[in-house]
Amino acid sequence: MVASLKTWVWAEGRWNELRVDVAATPGFSFHMVGTRDPTVREAPNRIHAALLEVGAKWPGKRITVSFHPTRPWQLGSAMDLPIALAVLMASGQVPLREGLWAIGTLDLKASLSWVEPDRPAPPQESGLFLYPSQAPWRVQDQNWAPLSSLREALEVVKSGIPLEAPLVPVLHRPAPGWPGLSLSGTALTALGLAAAGRHPTLLVGAPGVGKSEFARAVHSLRAAVEPNLPFVEPSSTLSPVQLVGANGAFWAAGTGVLFMDELGEMSLRTLEVLRKPMEAQWSRDATQVPQTIGATNPCPCGYHGHQSIECTCGSARLSRYQERFSGPFLDRFQMGLVLGREADSVAVPWDEMVFKLRMAQERQRARGPWLGNSGIPLESLIQCAEITRQAMDVLNGWHKKSGLGLRALHHAMRLARTAADWGQRAKVSEQDAWLSISLHASQFRLTSKSGPWGLARSSST
Ligand SMILES: [Zn+2]
Predict the structure, then answer these.
(1) For residue 129, what are the β-bridge partners?
(2) Is residue 169 part of a domain?
(3) Are residues 240 and 373 in the same domain?
(4) How far is the centre of ligand 1, averaged over its atoms, from the C-alpha of 214 (Å)?
C-alpha cells in the first residue's frame, strides 16, 4: 500500500511544498530516495522508538520513503511526523487520509517538537495541518492542529477531527447572580467544601436532580471571591485532543471549573487521557489546573438506586456502564456525592457561604501557595494538614479496611483539612475525618455485584 502526505520545507528563503510517499510492500528492508540530507536519513531510528511508545509498530515490510520534488534541500528532522504517519497509513495501522499535511520532530518518547529556527507560518490554505504546538506561530483556523505528541496526531488522524468540529471548547458562562438552588444537609456541606478546597468532585444522580446546577453553584461561590473565574463545560463528544491537547478544553478552564457532564457517555479513551492532567493538580509546581467536576447518571437509564422509579437496565448493562469508572480514574477525584431529590432541602444561604469560603481560603493561603487544599503536595501534607492523632487514627482505620491505595488516604487527608477550615478549626478533628470519609470519591468503586455505587446513602437537592 502507498500512503502520501504533504509537508513544508524551508529553502531558498521561503516555504516549499514537499510530498512524502511511503510504500509498504512484502519484504523486510528500508529505503529512502529523493534526498541526500543526512539528518532526515536518521529519521527511522527516532520514529521506530516513537511508534513503540504509542503502541504501534514498525511494519515488518519493505518500506520505501520518497520525496517529491527531488531537490538538494535540507529537510532536517521536521520530516519525522510526516514520515511516521505515512508509515502507519501505508502499513494499515491507521486509516488512509487524503489532504493531510504534517511537520515536526519526534523524540524517542514520541513527543512532538519544533527544532527549526523561527520562521513565518507556512502558507497553508486547505487540508488538515498537524504541527508542533511549540512552533513559533498560532493560527486561528480549525484545520490547523497544534499538537504535543505523536499520540495526539494519531487521535486527529483516526477521528478526522478537527475537520469535522472546531477545537474551541464549548464555553458556558453561568448567568450572573446566584443559582436558585435548594440543597439539604450533606449536599450543602459538600458544596462548601468543594468550593473552599477546590476538590475534584464526582456527582452521581438521576436525570434532573441538579448535577449541573451543583457544578455551577461551586463555580458561582468561587467566582464571588475570584472574579472572572472560567467555567468550561465541554461537549461529551470531544476527542481526547480537543479535551487535553494544547488548545483543549481542560486548559481553557485555567484555574476555574471544568464541568464534565455525562461522563458515562464519554469514550473510555477520553476518560483515560483525563487522568494525567487531573493529577497535575497536586504536583508541587501546578499553577494552571482547573477544578474538575464530573457528573454521571448511575446507569444508562438513569434510575438505578432511585426511590420510586425502577431501573430498566439489566445487570450486565449496568456493570458494563459502571466499569467505565476504573479505580485509577476514580482515584483522581477527591470528593464524591450522590445527589437525589429530598423533601428537607433548603435554599442555599449564599451570603453565609461566601463568608465561610473567604475565611477558609484565608487559612489555606497561610498554609502554602497551592491550588487550594486539593493541591497540597504530598511532601507538605503531613506537616501542613495539622491532623490530630485521633483524626489520623480514624483516617488510617478507614484506609486499612478499604483496601484502597495510598492516594485515596492522601485525598481523604486533604478533604479533612478543608472540613476543618470550613468549620474554622486550626486542627483537623475526628469529626472532620469522618466527614471526609463520607464524601470520599472511592464510595463509587464497585465493591460487590449487589451494591455498586454505594447508593444507599443519598443526599440532595
Ligand atoms: Zn438503569
Answers:
(1) 101, 144
(2) no
(3) yes
(4) 22
50-107 per-position pLDDT tens digit: 999 998 988 989 999 999 998 888 888 999 999 999 999 999 998 888 889 999 999 9
CA separation for the pair 211, 340 (Å, rounded): 9
Cα of 308 vs centre of ligand 1, distance in Å, is 13
What does residue 257 show for φ and ψ, rounded to 5 degrees?
-115, 125
Give me ligand 1 centre to Cα 369, in Å: 43
pLDDT value for 178: 77
- Single-letter amino acid, residue 290: P
- Between the CA of 170 and the centroid of ligand 1 the distance, in Å, is 28
> Given this model, what pLDDT does residue 63 score?
92
- Does residue 437 share a domain with residue 379? yes
Q: How far is the CA of 264 from the centre of ligand 1 (A)?
A: 12
* Non-local CB neighbours of 393 within 8 Å, separated by 6+ positions: none
- List, for residues 257-289, the tens digit of each pLDDT value: 999 988 888 877 788 888 888 887 777 666 788
Ligand 1 centroid to Cα of residue 323, in Å, is 14
**Same domain (yes/no): 281, 321:** yes
Q: Both 251 and 389 in a single domain?
A: yes
Q: Which residue is it, cell 438505578?
A: 304
Domain of 8 in residue numbering reads as 2-159
Cα 268 to ligand 1 centroid, rounded to whole Å: 19
CA distance 430 to 394: 7
Are 300 and 448 in a shared domain? yes
Cβ-based neighbours of 318, under 8 Å, separated by 6 or more: 299, 300, 304, 311, 452
Same domain, 147 and 195: no
Residues whose CB is under 5 A from ligand 1 (ion)? 299, 301, 304, 311, 313
The Cα-based distances of 22 to 40, 66, 86, 261, 425 in angstroms read: 14, 6, 6, 42, 66
